[in-house]
Every structure is written in structure tokens, then in C-alpha cells.
Design brief:
482 residues, mainly beta, Immunoglobulin-like, 3 domains, seven-stranded mixed sheet, 32 strands
């Protein structure tokens, strides 16, 4: 899989099975372009089907992917330019294809809860969508896996979607697209790795709650880890030259894992989160990603050598979570230098403007019902697991709402709002402004406040992006009306 392009590459040249060619321009917000005739070629084709992926030496994974790839090669589109999409399903089960981070109508968003179009087993659908907003987005399966780890985001049905902005300053020499993933999932009784930033009070609260609840239910572990579908040391390295400014676009394509990544001997200048430029780019040693989060960061290549870009967790890096970065003219074994831990802080990228008053503040309290030995944990929002027959909460299009994410569990939750971006207003008691996201990682026993203005009418799903949490109740619906 090609993992890098230069600014000199013509961006329509992304190689995709089925081809990619964009239709005539139609600005976002304009009436939708008429759908093409059934016999006209599509601008973008995704074919869902079985894939044999060579992820390491003498190690092949059997999975489901798009266009014979796992993950699919980066898809590059133009902001505001409509595309006709063909979806073919060569499997024996219905599928949903979700355009994560895009502002699109509910019927093509790819979420069953929103009554989106499904791709029938051995079937085909075609529709039209307008890619917006610009930046680093994401495409993936949105089926409910439940206990079947051969479905949903556990598979190879995912990949980067990059929406080229109308105005791109191009202040870098090379772009590199990286997507992480874990393979060969298994059920385990081990709980999520303890957060190193947990406070003594939070730890004591967890210990007290454990005395009065059933044992923790099943969690998910993995045997193999990859970046761009290859384990560390197996795929092609990222090749750079001394003096270059390299823009890394990185996606956490995991089903359940929150991760950290560092590039030995270098720092990242974070310029965008979830595809949206940040008000104040900052230098960091380690990037932290909740499931489905994306980070765009520039690295100045001024430390020649052969280095590892990988996770600080030694076991996961040993099992593949990393990629080699190789300077021109340099050879040898890649070097790894463990970075010092520092708590990830979204607010360093934000401003200090006061947020306008919302028309309504909505608190979403997250809870957990332990599944006990041999069972699955269930997850609640305001004391209830998701009920598809419940009346969705009504919101008004174009009005400003404040959501308070209140985590009453010790788990970290990467929570995602479909078909919208939201602005971080307060993170763990620290006010901020201007940081726009569609996923935010909420640590245990903490609160985050966000504001959003519903962009389109229709059903809008909110959920935890950890597949196991979403499947077992952690989601709710809004209904946006004019």
C-alpha cells in the first residue's frame, strides 16, 4: 500500500480499484446534483469482499476489506465536489459503509440507527454525496458486531479519506498517510490498561465501586498490530530526506484500542485534529489517539538516521505497532528511544475566547453495568442502554447546543457525533475554544463540554467508538428538524 505522496503528485492519481474521477463542481450547500444514469460510470467504487492480507513475514490474515485491500489506499476527494458512489457487497451479510467525519445526509451516512441505506448481501447500491468539510476523514464499516469479531471495525473495512481543501498553502514537502489497526482479536478477562494519569481519588473510587458490583465482563485483546496493514519491520519504510518538512496524517483505525505514537529523535507539530486546523499548533513528543481520532502533524527531518515511529508500549511495538522512518542514504537497524510520559491535553491547541450561550445544555452521563464472569458489560447513557424504539431527542437545525459528557466509569471513552463537528468548550475543568472535532477521548471519571450547531436535518447518532461499547448499549439518537 502506498503510504506517501508529495505535493507534486496530482491528487487524482490515488490508485483505487474501480477508479476515481470526480464529477462537475457543485459547492457545499448548493442543491444536490442529479444522480447519474445507472449505466454511467461511478466516480468512486467500493467493493466489500474477502481479503488475504500479508501483515508480517509468513503471517497472512483472512479478513474483509474494500477493493481487495485492508486497509484501502487513501481516498482523496475535493471539498464541495459531488461524487457518485457505487457500493458492491460480495459477502453473504448486509453491510453499512460510514463516511466518518463528513457532513452528509443521514440516508448515506452508513449508520443503521439513522435508517441509512444498507448494502444488501451480494448486492449493490449507488448514491451521490458531496465531500465536506475538508481535511482528514475516514471510511469504515458500521455494522453491529456483538460477539462476532469477524465483523465491523474488527475487519479490514476501513481507510483514510482525505478531502482536499479549496485553499491549501502546501507548507510541507511530503505527505505521509498512516492508519493503525489491530488483528486477531480475542476475548479476555483482563481490564483496560490503567491510565497513567489517573488520580489517587479516582483510583480509590474505582476500588470502592468494585466492592459492590459484579466482576468485569469480557474485554478484547489482540495478537497482531500494524500500520498501513504491515507489522513493524515488514512493510516499506517511510523514506524521507534531511531538511524536509513532512506532514503526517495519522488515523487510529482500531475497533477498541486507544493508542499513543512517538517518532524517536523527533517532535510533532500538531496542526489539525480530526481533520480540522487547530487555532494554535503545538510541539509534542507523543501523540495520543482515541479510537477513530485523527491527527495531522508536521515533523522537521533534521536528525538523520533510521528510526521507529511506534507505540511507547513495548509489548505492542514488539507485536507490530510501528513503522520505520528512513533518511536517504542511511541504513541499519532502526533505533527506538522511549519518550517521557506527559498527559495529553487538548486545550493547548485551543484559544481563550468565550463561547456563545447555547439554547440548551444537555448532560450525557455514561455508566457501566459489569457483565460478570463469562458475560458482556453493558453501557448506559443517563441510566439507559440504547433502545431503538425510544423517541430520539429533538434538536433544531442551526441552533447552538452544549453537550456535557460526564463519565461515571473508569474506562476511557472515545465518543463520536455523526454528521457534525463539535467545539471543545471545557476539558476536565479547563476552558478552551476553537478546537473542532468529531471524536473526543474522555478519560475515566472526568467531564468534557462541547458545543455544536446541527448542520443538517435528520437522525444523528452519538456513540462510543469502541465497538464493544457501542454494540452493548453506548449510543443515543438525536433528531434534527428545521
Amino acid at each position: 500500500m502506498k503510504n506517501k505522496t508529495t505535493r507534486r503528485d496530482f491528487f487524482y492519481g490515488a490508485a483505487l480499484t474501480g477508479g476515481l474521477a470526480l464529477a462537475a463542481c457543485n459547492r457545499a450547500g448548493a442543491p444536490p446534483a442529479p444522480a447519474p444514469a445507472d449505466n454511467a460510470p461511478a466516480d468512486l467504487t467500493l467493493r466489500i469482499g474477502p481479503v488475504l492480507a500479508d501483515i508480517a513475514k509468513d503471517h497472512t490474515i483472512s479478513t474483509t476489506g474494500y477493493n481487495g485491500q485492508a486497509p484501502i489506499a487513501p481516498i482523496r476527494l475535493h471539498e464541495g465536489v459531488p461524487v457518485t458512489v457505487d457500493l458492491f457487497n460480495d459477502t453473504d451479510v448486509p453491510e453499512f459503509v460510514h463516511w466518518h467525519g463528513l457532513i452528509v445526509p443521514a440516508d448515506v451516512d452508513g449508520a443503521p440507527e439513522e435508517k441509512s441505506l444498507s448494502v444488501p448481501a451480494r448486492g449493490h447500491i449507488r448514491y451521490r454525496l458531496t465531500p465536506q468539510p475538508s481535511g482528514l476523514r475516514f471510511v469504515h464499516s458500521h455494522v453491529m458486531s456483538m460477539s462476532d469479531t469477524n465483523r465491523g471495525t474488527y475487519t479490514g473495512q476501513f481507510g483514510i479519506v482525505y478531502i482536499e481543501p479549496k485553499n491549501n498553502p502546501g507548507q510541507y514537502d511530503q505527505e505521509v498517510f498512516l492508519a493503525t489497526h489491530e488483528w486477531e482479536p480475542f476475548f479476555t478477562t483482563a481490564e483496560e490498561m490503567e491510565d497513567p494519569d489517573v488520580t489517587p481519588a479516582e483510583k480509590a473510587r474505582k476500588e470502592e465501586e468494585d466492592k459492590h458490583s459484579a466482576p468485569n465482563g469480557w474485554e478484547i485483546g489482540y495478537q497482531r498490530f500494524t500500520i498501513n496493514g504491515k507489522a513493524l519491520g515488514y512493510g516499506e519504510p517511510v523514506r524521507v530526506k534531511e531538511g524536509q518538512r513532512v506532514l503526517f496524517h495519522i488515523l487510529n483505525g482500531s475497533a477498541t484500542e486507544n493508542i499513543e505514537l512517538a517518532l524517536s529523535g523527533h517532535q510533532f507539530q500538531v496542526v489539525a485534529l480530526d481533520g480540522n486546523p487547530v487555532p494554535h499548533p503545538q510541539m509534542v513528543d507523543v501523540l495520543e489517539f482515541g479510537t477513530a481520532e485523527r491527527i495531522s502533524a508536521i515533523v522537521e527531518m533534521k536528525n538523520p538516521g533510521v528510526w521507529v515511529l511506534g507505540t511507547p508500549h513495548d509489548d505492542d511495538r514488539r507485536d507490530g505497532m510501528g513503522i520505520v522512518v528512513e533518511y536517504a542514504g542511511r541504513k541499519g537497524d532502526p533505533k527506538w528511544i522511549k519518550p517521557q510520559h506527559k498527559a495529553w491535553d487538548y486545550t493547548i491547541f485551543g484559544g481563550n475566547n468565550s463561547a456563545p450561550e447555547p439554547v440548551e445544555t444537555i448532560t450525557l452521563s455514561f455508566g457501566k453495568i459489569n457483565g460478570g464472569k463469562g458475560g458482556f458489560n453493558h453501557w448506559t447513557i443517563n441510566g439507559k442502554t440504547f433502545d431503538e424504539n425510544a423517541q430520539p431527542r429533538a434538536l433544531g437545525k442551526g441552533k447552538r447546543y452544549r453537550l456535557i459528557f460526564d463519565n461515571h466509569t473508569d474506562d476511557s471513552h472515545p465518543v463520536h457525533l455523526h454528521r457534525n463537528s463539535f467545539e471543545l468548550i471545557d476539558v476536565y475543568g479547563k476552558p478552551t475554544s476553537g478546537v473542532m472535532k468529531d471524536v473526543v477521548l474522555l478519560k475515566g471519571y472526568r467531564k468534557i463540554a462541547v458545543d455544536f450547531v446541527p448542520a443538517m436535518e435528520g437522525l444523528t447518532l452519538f456513540h462510543c467508538h469502541q465497538q464493544l461499547h457501542m454494540d452493548y448499549g453506548f449510543k443515543t439518537l438525536f433528531n434534527v428538524t428545521a
